[in-house]
Amino acid sequence: MALSQAQTLPAKPPAGVVRAPDRGELIGWVRALESGTAYKWIEERVARHGPIFKTSFMGNRTVVVTGPVANKFVFTSGDDMLRSHQPVPIVYIAGEQSIFEVHGTRHKLVRGAIAGFLRPESLQRSVPLMSSLVKRYLTKEVEGKDSVSGVVLLKKIAFKVSCAVLFSLTDDKETDELFDEFLLVLKGAWVLPIYLPFTPYYRALAARRRIYDRFSAIVDERWRRLEDGSLSPNDDVVTAMLSMKDEEGRTVPRPEILDNLITLVMASHDTGVSLNASFVRHLAMNEVTLKHICEEHTKSSVRRKMET
User: ATP-binding among the record's keywords (predicted)?
Assistant: First the structure.
C-alpha cells in the first residue's frame, strides 16, 4: 500500500507482528490457504489487533485492512492515493512490467488492449470454441478412469481453454508442455523466496524463463503475420498487444508484452479454477443441490431437443 504524502498519517501505527523479513507470516498464511481456513487466519488477527494490522509477507512489511470501509477505500482510491504492488518475489515471477506493476497512462494502455479483446461481443464469438474444448478435454481426461483429481482437472482444462482463446494455441502437446511449466511457476509464487537449485522458487523462475522464450517465439510469429496481413489486431490477445501504441505513437516494447502475456495466463486460469473448484466442492458436499442441478440440466436438455 502506498499513501500520498499529503495524507495525514495516524500518530500510532497499526498493531501486529513484523518478524524477520525472510520469515514473516507467510508459512502460516499458505497453510491456511491450503486448508481452506484463510478467513479464520484473518479473523484471529482482527480479534487480536483490530481491523487494521501489520505483518510481513515474503520479505515485505505489510498492512492488512479489513471491513467495508477498507474495501471502499481500496476500490475507490486513485493512483495518487493507493497503488497496487505485488511482493518482490512474485514480481520476478509475473514480470516487472506486468499490468500489476505499471500505473497511470501505461496501465490504461495495457488494460485497454486486454479489455478490448475480452469485451462481451468478442467473448460471445468464442463461446462455441470454449464449449467444444471443454467437452473434448473433459471426455479425454476422464475416459477409462474411476476417479480424477478435480482441481488438477479443472486447472488443465481452464489452461487449455485460455491458451486457445487468448493465444490461438490448440496443439495438445504444446499446451500440455506449457501447462507443466505454469504449474511450476504457480507452485513457486507463494513460497519462501530462496534461490537455490532444489527450492520451488528456483524451479519457478527457471520455468518462467522457458515460458518467456516460448512466448517470445509466438510473438515473433504473430508479428510476421500481422505485417503480411494474414492476421488482424483482433485475432487474439497477442496481436492486440502487438498493435498497441502509446500516446506518442510508439509500439510497446517486447519485454512488456511478454510480461503481460505471462501475467494474463496466470491470472485468467487461476481465478476461474478457484471459482469452479469451489462450485464442484459445494456439489460434492450437498446432495440436495446436486440433485436439483441434475434435474435442471435434464429438463433443459429435453426442452432443447423438443425445440429442434
Answer: no
Of 118 and 166, the structure prediction assigns the larger pLDDT to 166
Phi and psi of 16, rounded to 5°?
A: 145, -175
What phi and psi, each to the nearest 5 degrees, are found at residue 3?
Answer: -100, 145
Residue 214 binned pLDDT confidence (cut-offs 50, 70, 90) = very high
Is pLDDT at 207 greater than 90 in this prediction? Answer: yes
The pLDDT tens digits for 121-135 are: 777 778 888 888 888
> Three-state SS across the chain?
CCCCCCCCCCCCCCEECCCCCCCCCHHHHHHHHHHCCHHHHHHHHHHHHCCEEEEEECCEEEEEECCHHHHHHHHHCCCCCCCCCCCHHHHHHHCCCCCCCCCHHHHHHHHHHHHHHCCHHHHHHHHHHHHHHHHHHHHHHHCCCCCCCHHHHHHHHHHHHHHHHHHCCCCHHHHHHHHHHHHHHHHCCCCCCCCCCCCHHHHHHHHHHHHHHHHHHHHHHHHHHHHCCCCCCCCCHHHHHHCCECCCCCECCHHHHHHHHHHHHHHHHHHHHHHHHHHHHHHHHCHHHHHHHHHHHHHHHHHHHHHC
**How confident is the model at residue 8, as a pLDDT?**
45
Percent over 90 (pLDDT), the chain: 11
What distance in Å separates the CA atoms of residue 90 and residue 96, rounded to the nearest whole number? 9
Euclidean distance between CA atoms 173 and 178, whole angstroms: 9
Our measurement of the distance from residue 105's CA atom to the centroid of its chain's CA atoms, rounded to an integer in Å, reads 22
